[in-house]
């Protein structure tokens, strides 16, 4: 049985991946290291508390003593590194926190893996989860990002992720550490903290609050349903080549305003008695964020051709599943919305604009 260290496993993508791994595999023991910051929620995995193959550790990836102790105590075979500060707006407000977690934290994990595994790399893997935002912004005529696209980050968040990508690659080149990297597009789905566009729009619309859209709302993103992302990571762990990078995307690129309009339409369908129908009337444009990238698009040819992966969900099916999940988990959503720090963040980024 492989022992896998998953960092940030109480966060959005991490908790979905742990659910995925325990559902589809019986040969993994999972050690979940999470600092339980505002975006980490231990309740996301409460149903695994008595699962013998799952163990939670409350700790910081920047804490060398804690990380080294985990490697020595649990004989870690693989690392799947999700833990990161991920929100562009928060990186504009507090860039040094992003440098600490995303760069220093990644370095601590890499060094612990190198020391623990020595020169015996067979059966080991360090997989680093990154983002398409490291590639910068595309014009309307530019080709989609791919694994050879030069890095050109435009925010403290994307710059910190670019730095961590380079560090992971350097450990492969310098030390031979068995690593893989995946650069994914915008994820959405269950358990996503509602500071991000899709869950924020769902949450606000249900409550009849304004749906704030940056600028003209014509920024373009590629949207990836989180379980599709999990299946791609699973394939990379099984069949990916050491030292390689894989781009993962949802194969669709709507504008932000199209996303929000589709969400309001789905809510109109699912909540026919809502006093806020049509929910599109709640849309409200606010001042754009500084340095807002205009377009992302990601080419998934490599992972499709080499590993046979393609996204299962289209935009409508994924969005409808997501809306239904939030409607069925209103208690979870309300607990998050009542967090004072989250309320202050919303005020700073939307109301104050």
Question: How are the SSEs ordered, and which strands pair?
Answer:
Layout: E1 2-7, H1 12-24, E2 28-34, E3 54-58, H2 64-74, E4 78-81, H3 88-93, H4 95-117, E5 125-131, H5 156-175, E6 179-184, E7 186-188, H6 197-207, E8 211-214, E9 223-225, H7 226-239, E10 245-248, H8 256-270, E11 283-286, H9 301-307, H10 315-328, H11 330-337, H12 340-351
Parallel strand pairs: 1-2, 1-4, 2-3, 4-5, 5-6, 6-10, 7-9, 8-11
Helix pairs in contact: 1-7, 2-4, 4-5, 6-8, 8-10
What does this structure look like?
The chain has helices spanning 12-24, 64-74, 88-93, 95-117, 156-175, 197-207, 226-239, 256-270, 301-307, 315-328, 330-337, 340-351; strands at 2-7, 28-34, 54-58, 78-81, 125-131, 179-184, 186-188, 211-214, 223-225, 245-248, 283-286. The strands form 3 sheets. Strands 3-2-1-4-5-6-10 form a 7-stranded parallel beta sheet, with helices on both faces. It has a two-stranded parallel ribbon with strand order 7-9. Strands 8-11 form a two-stranded parallel ribbon. It is α/β, with parallel strands linked by helices. It has 2 domains: 2-185 and 224-251 and 296-311, Rossmann fold, CATH 3.40.50.720; 192-220 and 254-294 and 314-342, UDP-galactose 4-epimerase, domain 1, CATH 3.90.25.10. It contains 12 helices and 11 strands.
């Amino acid at each position: 049985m492989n022992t896998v260290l998953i960092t940030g496993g109480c966060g959005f993508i991490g908790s979905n991946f742990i659910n995925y791994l325990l559902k589809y595999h019986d040969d993994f023991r999972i050690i979940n290291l999470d600092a339980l910051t505002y975006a980490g929620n231990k309740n996301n995995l409460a149903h695994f508390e008595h699962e013998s193959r799952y163990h939670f550790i409350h700790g910081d990836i920047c804490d060398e003593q804690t990380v080294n102790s985990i490697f020595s105590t649990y004989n870690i075979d693989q690392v799947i590194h999700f833990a990161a500060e991920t929100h562009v707006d928060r990186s504009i407000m507090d860039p040094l926190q992003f440098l600490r977690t995303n760069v220093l934290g990644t370095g601590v994990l890499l060094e612990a893996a190198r020391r623990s595994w020595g020169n015996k790399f067979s059966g080991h893997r360090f997989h680093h989860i990154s983002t398409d935002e490291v590639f910068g912004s595309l014009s309307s005529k530019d080709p989609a990002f791919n694994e050879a696209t030069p890095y050109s980050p435009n925010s403290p968040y994307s710059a910190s992720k670019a730095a961590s990508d380079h560090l992971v690659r350097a450990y492969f080149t310098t030390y031979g550490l068995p690593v893989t990297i995946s650069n994914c597009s915008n994820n959405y789905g269950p358990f996503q903290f509602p500071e991000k566009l899709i869950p924020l729009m769902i949450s606000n619309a249900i409550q009849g609050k304004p749906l704030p859209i940056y600028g003209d709302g014509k920024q373009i993103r590629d949207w990836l349903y989180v379980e599709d992302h999990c299946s791609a990571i699973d394939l990379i762990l099984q069949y990916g080549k050491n030292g390689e990078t894989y781009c993962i995307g949802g194969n669709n690129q709507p504008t932000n305003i199209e996303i929000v309009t589709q969400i309001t339409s789905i809510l109109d369908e699912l909540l026919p008695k809502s006093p806020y129908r049509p929910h599109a009337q709640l849309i409200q444009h606010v001042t754009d964020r500084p340095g807002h990238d205009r377009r992302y698009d990601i080419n998934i040819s490599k992972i499709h051709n080499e590993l046979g992966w393609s996204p299962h969900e289209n935009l409508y099916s994924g969005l409808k599943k997501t809306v239904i999940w939030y409607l069925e988990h209103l208690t979870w959503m309300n607990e998050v919305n009542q967090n004072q720090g989250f309320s202050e963040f919303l005020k700073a980024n939307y109301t104050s604009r």
